Amino acid sequence: MAGASETVLQGLVPGMDMNSYGNLEKKKRLSSEQLESLERSFQEEIKLDPDRKQKLSKELGLQPRQIAVWFQNRRARWKAKQLEHLYDTLKQEFDAISREKHKLQEEG
Q: What residue ranges does this record give for the DNA-binding region (predicted)?
């Protein structure tokens, strides 16, 4: 029954995670240098091939899975920003067309 309480605790305590043995452990934050390196790599190519994942893992002292998850999360944030930008652009175009239509209706 300890496993169930750990799972509940894991969901309630920010920054806590289960390690591979089922024990709770504090999540380790990435250093600013690690983040900068990951960000530079992401700017070069948003997809992560296995060779580059291994190279980054060795360079940064992180598990390959950590690298993969970071890239996955970063792509999700990137996609959300792209959609936000697209929405703003389309909204501006729609508003301009709507104003033009209203102006033409008043003239006619």
A: 23-82
